[in-house]
Amino acid sequence: MMPGEETKVTITDGELAAKSAPLVDKLIADQVAGKLAAGDPTLWGPAAESEAAIRLSWTALHRSSRPLIGEIEALRAELHREGIDRVVLAGMGGSSLAPEVITRTEGVPLTVLDTTDPGQVADALAGDLNRTVIVVSSKSGGTVETDSHRRIFAKAFADAGIDAASRIVVVTDPGSPLAELAEAEGYRKVFLADPHVGGRYSALTAFGLVPAGLAGADVARLLDQAAGVAEKLAADGAGNPALTLAAAWGAAHADGAEKVVLADTGSGITGFADWAEQLIAESTGKQGTGLLPVAVDSPGAPGFADAGPDATPVAIGPGTDAAPVATAGPLGAQFLLWEFATAIVGRLLEINPFDQPDVEAAKQAARDLLGDPARLEGGAQPSAADGPVEIFAPAGVSTDGTLAEVLRAFLALAPEHGYLSVQAYLDRLDDASAALLRGELARRSGLQTTFGWGPRFLHSTGQYHKGGHQNGIFLQLTGAPETDLEVPGRPYTLGKLQHAQALGDGQVLTQHGRPVLRLHLTDRAAGLAHLMRAVEEVAG
Ligand SMILES: O=P(O)(O)OC[C@H]1O[C@](O)(CO)[C@@H](O)[C@@H]1O
């Protein structure tokens, strides 16, 4: 769809439309859209009220974020005058996903660090530091990945004879430890974001706009696009696309379709599903319920046109025969539309769409492992090895046979209408071929299959895996790092942190009774090739 095109949601499937219509009527009768736009915190019940009371400012960001535009432009011009035109962004989840989709859509370069993979961070460090500014984005100001990137870049600047403080721009909430540190260290500029907006709803706050704007994206236009749809989204009437989308998701979920398969069908937006994934999964995946977003490459990818009764394909862009639901509109408008729809479906599912109660467990498990080097280093011995792939199998999976046989036994553990989650703690650029496993495994297993880079997905679908419908099976991929990086001032390296994150999340998933198969690639390239061959042997 072209910018400026009308923002709308279409339900083309007659049955789904009929089932959603009463939900839309009820939402209209309860004046949910108007109340949401007015910041009414009672929409999700008494248990959610105190949190919702400090989480609803995102509905008005198209107005309240305006003053940022001039500040961003001024800083960009100042940096350019000094020859600084390469922007690196350190931030996890809501602190990097929106700027990534904004800049990819506009085709402006932004190096995003939402990884602990030492090779990927080393590649970012190898860019021209004389021309580099790093935006350190963290709402809480305490996220370990982001803090590690800040430390590593500060040292690299200093080692290169560059004044590090002049190259660090911070986006954080007022009063966070990062805000205090930035002041103490005299960092170049601190953008304080609206604390009444949660991370995954923060696309149109400083978290989305500062890195994207410094990289050269037209962020004023994004606010214009959001402003263009705001009135429609606040209206308690049948023409409100957020009500249509929320009701479609709610009706499908009530019918057993708890997965939402997202494919771009020509929206003109690049990577929207990666952003929507966090919004939907972290907002809804809790208390044993929720919607599992499954981002796929194209409408032709396995899991979309051939989705079973447990999933609803959603076209981002023009509708297709395969997709009962399609959403259209320019990026700024789509951000706001999907945020409204997600908050509203939270009401239909009777959960609090603003907390993420199960994310902390994996962080704690990783911290515990980092504090216990013997356990981290030793780890469990692999159950078996097949060429460059070491196999750490869950209970119930025999490792007597080949890797293909192990995979077959593992996939057989999925319950009917369960799902497979592939989690690659690897380098998203150098090991990019790992992402091809999603389609191959989905095709061969017939399961809805998600793919996430670790630890990136921990801040996105990670909440759902632990808090949502408990019918997933988990394939973790870890790999021997070719290089490692010290984290200055910390007793661990980036490689150790990455390893602890994989093991820690694996432990938590296992405690939830979910099967976790970890495959460790002793040689990454050879291991991925070997694994792909084994997957191809798994019969369809
Ligand atoms: O901006 P922060 O505080 O660094 O958090 C990053 C991300 O981590 C989470 O808190 C969950 O892990 C997300 O909700 C958030 O977007």
Provide an overview of this structure:
The protein has 540 residues and is an alpha/beta fold. The protein has three domains: 8-38 and 234-349, Rossmann fold (3-Layer(aba) Sandwich), CATH 3.40.50.10490; 60-223, 3-Layer(aba) Sandwich (Rossmann fold); 359-537, Rossmann fold (3-Layer(aba) Sandwich), CATH 3.40.50.10490. It is built from 21 helices and 16 strands. It has helices spanning 14-29, 32-37, 46-52, 61-64, 66-81, 97-106, 118-125, 144-159, 177-185, 206-215, 219-233, 241-254, 272-284, 331-349, 359-370, 373-378, 403-411, 436-445, 462-467, 494-511, 524-537; strands at residues 8-11, 86-90, 111-113, 132-138, 168-172, 189-192, 259-264, 292-295, 311-316, 325-328, 384-386, 389-392, 419-425, 448-453, 472-479, 516-521. The strands form three sheets. It has a six-stranded mixed sheet, with helices on both faces. A five-stranded mixed sheet has the order 1-10-9-7-8. The chain starts with 7 loop residues before the first strand and ends with a helix. 58% of the residues are buried. It binds 6-O-phosphono-beta-D-fructofuranose. 6-O-phosphono-beta-D-fructofuranose binds next to loops.
